[in-house]
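Late entry, evening session. Most of the bench is empty. Finally got around to the prediction I had been postponing all week. Sequence below, unchanged from the version circulated by S.P.
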Amino acid sequence: MRALLIAVMASLVAAAGADASDLPLSLPLGLQEQAAWIPDDNPLTPEKIALGKQLFWDKRWSRNGTLACVSCHDPNHGWADPRRVSTRFDGTPTPRHSPTLVNRLFSDVQQWAGTRTSLEDQAIRASDQTPELLVKNLGPIAGYREQFRKVFGTDVTPDGVAKAIAAYERTILSGNAPYDRFRAGDAGALSPAARRGLALFEGKARCAPCHAGFNFTDEGYHNLGVGMDRDTPDLGRYTVTKDDRHRGAFKTPTLRDVARRPPYMHDGSLKTLAEVVSFYDRGGTPNAWLTTAIQPLNLTATEQADLVAFLEALTGQVAAEVTSPPRLPD
């Protein structure tokens, strides 16, 4: 699937045949339309987004009817999982903590190790489901059959399920945080501690090179040493590329809404933002593939608290119509 780096607004006008006032997606303060990733074969439309939202919240299409996407990506928990690691349909643990879905509109490759080439790929493979069983579970539901024919011109298909869910996930957008209002000219939007934390973030604490740009991520992979002191560590990006330089490297997550979604890191091993800052202050966990970008910071206790205050100021707003549960079809 070819992904185009395109402007959201132009894409939606072309896709939906609408003028700007009818667009199914708007960007909150602080986000940038030029950075959006929308596959050329899956344009956003209001009908497709509505279908995807229902599928995202519906347990009936999972292998045993007990899990939905929302089970591991809770909108009340920063669209991530409050558990250290998520569980499969049979209750067995997965090896990693579910990453947030916030602002995935601005990324093509997904997951901690980049194992999914797109949100569409992630949606269909995350279900622990076979295409045949998916169609068997959803096909008899009249409300889904009707919507699929309207949106895709087909009966229920695995490809359509993936495209609809991905379309909905691209609307999970968080912005208009205190940081954004501060950047827009509201000097009182950040507390004194958060302003000091911002200066540390961009300077002494060395956060900005990796947590870069408006979405606070370079979308790259880095070895911080998390879990690398275990007997059999998770090797992250290396499992995909088999490149020794990627041993123990994991994707830089967005920091938007980060205060809403503990625990942290790919293994959920750090419970609080204070623990995360302390981990970075120590210079991570030494290992042969530790990125050169992480070094001891020698932050004082006050500086560490100020940095946490700034991270909390990245808590934004997701539209209510995105977060509210849908009515599922019969």
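Two things to note before I forget:
Residues 1-23 have pLDDT under 50 and may be disordered.
The domain at 3-174+318-323 is CATH 1.10.760.10 (Cytochrome Bc1 Complex; Chain D, domain 2).
Will write this up properly tomorrow.
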